[in-house]
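ok here's Solute carrier family 26 member 6:
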Amino acid sequence: MGLSEASEPRDTQVLLASRETMEPKRRDYHVERPLLNQEQLEELGRWGPAPGALQWRTWFQCSRARARALLFRHLPVLAWLPQYPVRDWLLGDLLSGLSVAIMQLPQGLAYALLAGLPPVFGLYCSFYPVFVYFLFGTSRHISVGTFAVMSVMVGTVTESLAPDDAFLQAPNSTVNETARDAERVQLASTLSVLVGLFQVGLGLVHFGFVVTYLSEPLVRGYTTAASLHVFVSQLKYVFGLRPRSFSGPLALVYTVLEVCGMLSKSLPGTVVTAVVSGVVLVVVKLLNDKLRRHLPMPLPGELLTLIGATGISYGVGLNHRFGVDVVGKIPTGLVPPLAPSPQLFTKLVGNAFAIAVVGFAIAISLGKIFALRHGYRVDSNQELVALGLCNLVGGTFQCFPVCCSMSRSLVQESTGGNTQVAGAVSSLFILVIILKLGEFFQDLPKAVLAAVVIVNLKGMLMQFKDIHSLWVANRMDLLIWLVTFVATTLLNLDLGLAVAVAFSLLLVVVRTQRPHYSVLGQVPDTDVYRDVAEYSEAREVPGVKVFRSSTTMYFANAELYSDTLKQKCGVDVDRLISKKKKLLKKQELKLKRLQKEQLQTKAAASRGTSISIDVNASDGHVKSNSLEGSKAKQGSTENELQDTAAASGQDDADAKAPDRSTLEALGLPPPDFHSLVLDLSSLSFVDTVCLKSLKNIFRDFREIEVEVYMAACHTPVVAQLEAGHFFDASITKQHLFASVHDAVVFALQHPRSNHVSPVLATKL
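and the structure:
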């Protein structure tokens, strides 16, 4: 013991000594390579266009292996069921399927009421779609069936297109529930078929990426607002009221006001039944949370509550004595398939697309969570096809649209479920209930089902905590969450989703329009360049400006990019160019005026010579000699003038041209840098506006005697620049460098003026 304690300080000293000897080696590590512009880089790396894979050719290839792979991809059960480890997984799947079925029964009955349909149709939704997903789904843990958000979206459609007011009977102004329910079932089943067609079609064309436009804050804000719609829709069952149904914007507000105005008409028996049921459900859930480690499966609180409430209602006669509304007759057996009504497609197409997208977003997000946790892959396109087939087949058997349930999926995983065999077991258990046991729940109070729905909203209502976490983590995501929540709450579920997606995409555009622009400086003794405003030790290279944007440049922010570049450089480029052009124009006018005066002087001189000859001539001989002599003189004089003018003009052009066009010669202050380097590492694509902006930057800065270089451009972007004819005689690939450091060193070695000595480049 003592020996080990004594050896510890010695080992520590050895480690410290070895680390000290290693540190100088790390500091002395150097990388030497030549400067590389784009032409040199392409030549050195032997760049060539990547061979394009003609994907369409494989579509028409037919082979046994391809047919087998295609079959296994679209019918995954054939791939995993033959390899199913019966001894290891069967017991867990059986127990998990039984647990999920126990939850499916009360939730199916409750969510059918939420959709505005008779409760038995919730049981149908817990059988047909679940078995179809067993065949076609790729997630091993999600539980497909009724879900509160989907049910309330369906409920808004059925109640708006088939309101109670349309089925009032004349004698006593009561609602014809039989006709109303038949119409709503037709609407819901047709809606389910249309949702299935959307999902299957989008999945077959590999449109599963559409869910990427629904960010996590958007989905969580949407489901939180949907939970409020669910909660408000159940108040009429809790208080035993029959308020008017509202649809469209502000329907939630109108419903709350309607319920508040009718509270004096509440039925005490219904309220007591709902409160007692809710308390029992909450207590059982708390016990499950406390005893989770000690119980093989959660206590079936919902099933026990339903059985107990049904027994009490039947024994006490809650319906007859206290007016408590009950489920009523539940037919036994399966219903025949019902053809959808094509006439309703035009009325339902918008809602169907919204339900299809929301259902898929919830299912794929939950499926990917379980896939990452258990180490398998979920195919998003096949999931879209599987959900579409669930809704398509379910719609033909009078089901309403379904997706996966969060609470049931967690139970299916936590109770030992490993595959969708658990889902098949739960669907078979529901089938038994439909065929034999459904009639025993005829005296079940609807208030109990409302309590089941409200208690199960706990998870979604707890998402209000996102406000605090997003405020700390990312306030832009918080803004998306709040806008989604407010829009969905006030404008209803379909319009709210459209507003949320539009706002989310608009915010992305706005954020790209307001990127972070920075002037970069060199970190001492490195080839690393960072923002001089953020890194105090970073220093600008004398004579060279390095500019970078945090996002790509395209039509929405190209003008801002150019304006910020000129501002960050500390030079009013446009004003300087304007002054230069004005001075050059003045010089040009002055030169033209001088040339005009010279021409006038020469013309006057030539006229004066000819007049003196005519006057001085006295006789014809003298006149002739004088004319010949004067012509000779005049010719020699004109030749001398032309030679002198040409020589002086050439000398003036050689001597005065540079002085006349430079900023220094014009008396304008030149910039304090001779080169500009554009760090284009964030450039991900190029459009025509970006090309024009880059060319304008080259033109403007060259006007003020600053050479422009580009650096760190990705190969696809270079190819797009070439395709857009960006490179020409004035802008070549020699102006594009592999890194910022290469461009800076090259700029120092080739300055356009005497701002900095090229010797500085060797120090970098």
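+1. Confidence is low (pLDDT under 50) at residues 1-10, 21-26, 610-658, 753-762.
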